[in-house]
Amino acid sequence: MNKAIYFAAAFAFLTNVPLKAQNQYKSNISKMYQGKEINNKFDKEIARLLVQMTLEEKIGMLHGNSMFTTGGVERLGIPELKMADGPLGVREEISRDSWAPAGLTNDFATYYPAAGALAATWNPNLAYTFGNSVGQELRARDKDMLLSPAINIVRTPLGGRTYEYMTEDPFLNKKMTVPMVVGLQDNDVMACVKHFAANNQETNRDFVDVQIDERTLREIYLPAFEAAVKEGKAYSIMGAYNKFRGEYLCENDYMLNKVLRDEWGFKGVVVSDWAAVHTTVKSLKSGLDIEMGTPKPFNEFFLADKLLAAVKAGEISEKEIDLHVERILRTLFQVKAMGANDRVKGSIATEAHYQDAYKIAAESVVLLKNENNALPLNLNGIKSIAVIGNNATKKNALGGFGAGVKTKREVTPLEGLKNRLPSSVKINYAEGYLERYEEKNTGKLGDITLNGPVTIDKLDDAKVQEAVEAAKNSDIAIVFAGSNRDYETEASDRRSLKLPFAQEELIKKVVEANPKTILVMVAGAPFDIKDISTKTNALVWSWFNGSEGGNALADVILGNVNPSGKLPWTMPVDIKDSPAHATNSFPGDKTVEYKEGILVGYRWFDTKKVEPLYPFGYGLSYTSFSFEKPTTDKKVYQENETISLSVSIKNTGKLDGKEVVQVYASKPDSKVSRAAQELKGFQKVLAKAGRSELVTIKIPVKDLAFYNVDTKKWEVEKGKYILHVGNSSRNNNQQISINIH
Ligand code: BGC
Fold this sequence. Notes:
- It is a single chain.
- The chain is an alpha/beta fold.
- It is built from 21 helices and 30 strands.
- Strands 1-2-3-4-5-7-10 form a 7-stranded mixed beta sheet. Strands 11-18-17-16-12-13 form a 6-stranded mixed beta sheet, with helices on both faces. A 5-stranded mixed beta sheet has the order 22-30-29-24-25.
- Strand 17, helix 18 (530-535) and strand 18 (538-542) form a beta-alpha-beta unit.
- The longest helix is centred in the N-terminal third of the chain and has 17 residues, at 124-140.
- The radius of gyration is 26 Å and the shape is globular.
């Protein structure tokens, strides 16, 4: 698309869209997302099929017969179950028996913002949009199951997959996960919610034994999975690589049979992570349904020939095999892969889907600092802008060892600025720092490895010179720094919070050369930006932000979009301040004990009174908001009631803007140890300049419960609670107290 069309689009966005969006927004505001239960009506048909199937055919359905399919039974009209990664959009087609690309031309897809970005919107409606949009693409690729969403809790900022996960907070996690699952499954496909559970690090993930006390498990690590099952009605769940309390998660009777199926009523299928299975009979008996993996021949999988032998040896009955086959058939019927001719056809890489990605990206950008009105950029008198940093042009749809997307559109930050700036403004681009990795222990240039990327943290003199010149010779400079998907990657955790490739040194030099420097971080996880954040007036946080990421970012920088993203995790001053590190319980060795217990993320910082660099829930706007005193519909509630909290917020600035009203609860004099406060409700609201909006947030009293390990039940303590209302976990001093009788 040429510049003029983009400009017209941006203008239309400024003039028309906000109004329309506002109306739509309001009508959606209290939408409840509820998935469709797997229907029992297929049971007769399933029974009819089962009696006709041979044991071999049944077992063929329980393991991969290619990298991303399980066996079907052609003669009975049972199709293969076709899966695709993943969290960033529908992954390109790979070969049936290796990771090599299949080389198709019809598998270009929309690259959606990573889950961290989605969570930063704090907008569940956008999570539905995301799921619905990617669900369409999945159908266009004729798949049945998307290996997404990935919802493990961000326990440590160093986690290699932090960008792929949503948040450190279980409440935000579940509020975003449920609509995502519902949106996806509204397209006759299955969500595969992963990685169940307690898979919070990449280090030693293939064997590490995670020890979490029961209350912490229930309150922090399971709520989003539970909501995905009970409210979202997710049709499948992926078992994780690691062990939990001594048992691998794909053969963990407690987690798969007791919690997932018996307690939560899960009716769908449990799929293993790739090569996460270690036993045959034990896995099946513990609740696993499908074994996926690589690279050995598919008949050598634990649930292939070995399973056949086990049945023949009488170690497991055919009746038990039937149970798993039934589950798979039921989900295939449910998503209309069988027995229907009106299945969603879908569409892929359409302009509408790119615009879905744009909407998410635009609401995800977090404004961390903005002094002297440095942003939005006032173009009056600006003739030139220095655009500096490898991240201005770096693409992230693919990279590292995680699933990515093959896409025809990934607008980089530099391209976004070019698209949105008038041609009268000259852009002076300089790469500034080089993305370079070292071959292990050789000092030579190399590639990233499964052991984690070893970065070369040294600047190149000529590149620095070029960047400094560009900064000096331009009216202002924007540095695009941060990381990328080679550096933040599946299979390894980061070693520290330090910015790689000597970026900090470069940023300081650029700021010296031009004090009017704006810093834009593109990253998926916290970094040590404490020093550099003091050096610049403006600091913007963007993400691995999808096909339209660069356009969305440019629109925020130029003020076409008023930023409304909020951090989905705490940005620590120092890694030692983070709970898993403060308690010296990361990454463990053979075992990792989550010693911080329930005090994950801001729960730790707030309870221990540790100052974060930027707190959970934080993000600025180009306008300002004031909060009136909140009220509740009653003062005293019973356990089965719902608190209705209302607060009027006023947009006290000159621009329309969206704010996220956040409600945190604390329990004075609790009989159990508690976090200082916990997020219990939030709502994003659009307020026009000068206008007030009344926001009503519903909090079921049962959401105030803690998990009582003695009774094995959720328990609402009676007495006084304080609800803190504001726009971040550290700016919420509008309080109201209520009583539970
Ligand atoms: C990842 C999963 C992914 C699977 C298939 C595994 O390594 O942990 O998230 O879905 O590979 O690509």
